[in-house]
Amino acid sequence: MELGQLEAFVQVAHLGSFSRAAEALYLTQPSVTARIQTLEKDVGEELFERGGRTIKLSDAGAVFLAYAERALKEVQESRDALESLRNASVGHLRIGSALTISAYVLPRLLKSFRSCYPGVAVSVRTGRSDHVMDMVLADEAQVGLVRGLYHPELETVHLYDDQVVLVTHPGHEFATKGCAPIEAVGHQPLIFFDKGSSYHGLIHGYFRDAGIVPTHSMELDSMEATKKMVEEGLGIAILPRLSVEREIGLGLLVEVAVTGAEPLKRPIALITRRNRRHSRPVKAFMELLQSTLRTDGHHDAPGAKPTQPLLKRAPTAS
Q1: Which member of 133, 169, 196, 227 has the greatest number of CB atoms within 10 A?
Q2: Domain 162-265 has CATH 3.40.190.290
């Protein structure tokens, strides 16, 4: 079984065509066909069902695909590791990130990273925190930035506490006073981020702990749309502070202190595969997270203790 055979198999599986796989691999179609046939002889199973022009995976092929993809990823990671020994400024960095972090934290971090490592190819995939965890477990991402999640196969390192604050439009009565009791907030038309978001459960728990059933105005699946609705006076919202800093600075939104309840916050963490040897670009990015997120005070909740050193890695496998 050769690497070229696995590459041909994976390309045909994903593209559903021997000719398109040949184009992707810069090979002739007969060459791709020969590689697949040799691979099928090696594994003792037909990996594709061939019916006319239709090519689809057989049952054996569907099982084999996950292992073939994993093998190719391991080979790529080994190449990255060897390349990083020769030149620390090249390689690949695959990041999985929760949606809010990717929009409001990552751009600044990646700007700093690219200035130091311009030759590193960076890819970012976004999703809910639990989806990002799945990406890291499947080795689709080398590092993940998520709300505090824990899994026995992952190392979770606390980065900062994400403050969640009440915002209104400048003409709202709460904005004039600068503060509002939580009971009054619960009776205002509230704009909620969608139920699939962890913020939705966090905010509902916030009111539930105070014995209040909040008034729903509307529910949106976009942070930017939520902010615009508040700007137009269609309701008030409780959002991550880092997502509204720009609008607060421009006077489009006003942050209002909520009295009668503890400050609302959510832990944000870095996750990586446990006992995994990291390439130089991955180590560099993790070190950037440590230095940047430890020194940016606005990421910490009011009165929070200084963040402890972040990179307490488990021993790497030999």
Answers
A1: 133
A2: yes
Supply φ then ψ for residue 299, to 5 degrees.
-85, -15
CA distances from 69 to 15, 19, 66, 177, 270 (A): 14, 20, 5, 58, 25
| Assigned token pair, 1 | 């079984």
87-160+267-299: CATH, from 3.40.190.10, 3.30.565.10, 3.30.930.10, 3.90.1640.10: 3.40.190.10
Residue whose pair of structure tokens reads 């990406």 in the numeric block: 135
Ranges of the chain with pLDDT below 70: 52-53, 81, 83-90, 294-318
pLDDT value for 317: 32
Alpha-carbon torsion (147, 149, 154, 159), positive or negative: positive
87 burial type by CB count under 10 A (0-12 exposed, 13-18 middle, 19+ buried)? exposed
Predicted confidence at residue 299, as pLDDT, reads 38
Q: Which CATH number fits domain 3-81: 3.90.660.10, 1.10.10.10, 1.25.40.10, 1.20.1260.10?
A: 1.10.10.10
